[in-house]
Amino acid sequence: MLYSELSGLLYHGSNARVSDIDLSKGSLKKDFGNGFYTTSSKRQSEKFAQIKAKRYSASTGYVSIFKFNDNADLKTMRFETANLDWLNFVLFNRGFIKENVLNNDYDIIIGPVANDTVGLVLNQLIIGTYGDPLSLSAKEMAIRLLEPEKLYNQVLFKTEKSVESLRFKEVYSVAVDG
């Protein structure tokens, strides 16, 4: 089950130091649903820490670092690319479509992160720029627009069982740019 995203360190960017994970503090309407989000990209986590710090008018963000300890009992779903299944899953979790076409009974979900550019494409899809937002042609257009993007990964830990597989290593601060 061990994917390359899980074989190294995982980073969590935030406006707070996180050493003990509390799933109840997760936000709703995120790409893969509620849970604890990490990435294998140190750069992506630093950027997110800066964004979160700015949102709370703080001068410093924090990157908490975790090591994953493989547990064969964890049910994991992985989206290889930003494809139609990924897009429908993100749209469902963000509350834009009502029906989830995928089984959401997973401990860990891995896949591309919807960064700022992706967010713009999704918003244009939702308001009908590419046609009926629920149509296959509109969704395919959105995916084509996303293909050239360098999409970082995100790793969502959805359950207490999955969180138990993470071991806190350290935290460091990140200054907020101008």
Describe this protein's structure.
A four-stranded mixed beta sheet has the order 2-6-5-4. Strands 1-3-7 form a three-stranded antiparallel beta sheet. The chain has six helices and seven strands, in the order αββαββαβααβαβ. The termini are far apart. It is an alpha+beta fold. The mean pLDDT is 86. It has a single domain, classed as Phosphoenolpyruvate Carboxykinase, domain 3 (Alpha-Beta Complex). 30% of the residues lie in helices and 23% in strands. The protein is globular and about 45 Å long. The protein has helices spanning 4-7, 42-55, 84-93, 116-126, 136-146, 160-163, and strands spanning 9-14, 36-38, 60-68, 76-78, 108-112, 153-157, 166-175.
